[in-house]
Amino acid sequence: MSNTQSKRAVEVNFDGLVGPTHNYAGLSWGNVASKSNEYAVANPKQAALQGLAKMKSLADRGYVQGVLPPHERPHMPTLRALGYAGSDAAILQRVSREDPVLLAAVASASCMWTANAATVSPSADTRDHRVHFTPANLAAKFHRSIEPKITARVLKSIFSDAAYFAHHAPLPPVSQFGDEGAANHTRLCASYGAPGVELFVYGDVAFDDHFYGPTLFPARQTREASQAIARLHGLKDGCAVFAQQNPRAIDAGVFHNDVIAVGNGPVLFYHELAFAEEQRVLAEVESRLQGAALQPVRVSDQEVPLADAVASYLFNSQLLDTADGMLLAVPGECREVASVSRYLDRLVAGEGPITAVEVFDVKQSMRNGGGPACLRLRVVLTEDELQAMHRGVLMTDALYERLTLWVEAHYRDSVSQADLADPLLLEESCKALDELTGILGLGTIYDFQH
């Protein structure tokens, strides 16, 4: 075992701070919650404060918690690249008249779901013993495909020391290499600093005409993309396992694997319909896991029907280490769906590895189809790597207070689709984000700052 592998390490959760243009445009076909709340009036201020409260709660429990900033929206460079010219105000008014769906896309606050920001491999898993980052290309959805450039800038600003961190360009932005980031990737391990098994889940195989996939909703992650990331990250032999997502789950609204399965340490919490080849996946992970036995926590469709799992986002929860087992941080909707609430009571009363459940109110995010797990990107860091990163984005009491005041000062408490054409919203957003880069110490990461 190398020195890097034997070092102590922690898992840092980087949550996305909800942006000032948070709205419900129903842009994500295949995401049931997103479509069902289309055109509802959103509350960006409440959404951001809910997210901050979740971050602060976990930081207060002793977890290392980071913040990732929202992106500039509406994204005027995208509109100008599509042929719109004139002042920002004139462009917004014209796009609002001619193509309101396009306006909603360039105003989307979807970068809040940082589980889609990138795929991250810890130094214990890589041949060069550095932490590797690949921003997701998010090629399946136009409104999300705008994100990778700024995501890359943010990650490079936070993790700038090349001795510890390696950054890769997003994969080619085409359907054959569709990549949705950590939402389709989880890591299982005996301990964070030990070599792990990186489980890549895909819904499509682009170069196989005989591949059987979903028939109702599109699969967003390809096997080709997952394999390319494993190669780019230089994963050690035997470290990567590739698993097909169950097509039935995708057609039920499980657009990412993190809506149907979540792992932490040696524990894999999943629905029986998560994987196309359940037993093969478990056996392969088990055979490659070093230093611990895999602890699968399987939820049957009889206990929690697939539709209830999707409605509640039971599996889009955070699974976190505690002194006496695992904590499952669930969205409030889990207590509103009877089968799920009953299951959670049985879960913590049993003798399995998950010993506690805590409910978080992230309703503003949930209405757009993102639960607690969607809101965070997990980065495993050794003590040296943690010291080498930019620490101004790590949650403290002082940062929480400052960000809360910042949200209160800059965010609206109501945003409708008509508001997206308001040039004052763009002006307010840019002013807020310019101030935020100073608060977080990230430098000039936005296009409007260059």
Counted beta strands: 15
Strand portion: 15-25%
Q: What is the total number of structural domains?
A: 1
Quaternary structure annotation: single chain
Radius of gyration: 21 Å
Mean pLDDT: 93
Task: Note the gap between the termini.
Answer: 45 Å
Instruction: Give the CATH architecture.
Output: 5-stranded Propeller
> Which CATH class?
Alpha Beta
Number of DSSP helical runs: 17
Keyphrases for this structure?
single chain; alpha/beta; L-arginine/glycine Amidinotransferase, Chain A; three-stranded mixed sheet; 18% strand; globular; disordered N terminus
Describe what is shown at a glance.
The protein has one domain (3-449): L-arginine/glycine Amidinotransferase, Chain A, CATH 3.75.10.20. The N and C termini lie far apart (45 Å).
SSE topology:
Layout: H1 3-6, E1 9-16, H2 32-36, H3 44-60, E2 65-68, H4 76-81, H5 88-98, H6 100-106, E3 118-121, E4 131-135, H7 142-145, H8 148-158, E5 165-167, E6 185-189, E7 196-202, H9 223-232, E8 240-244, H10 247-251, E9 261-264, E10 267-271, H11 278-288, E11 295-299, H12 306-312, E12 318-322, E13 325-331, H13 338-349, E14 354-360, H14 363-366, E15 376-382, H15 383-388, H16 397-410, H17 423-440
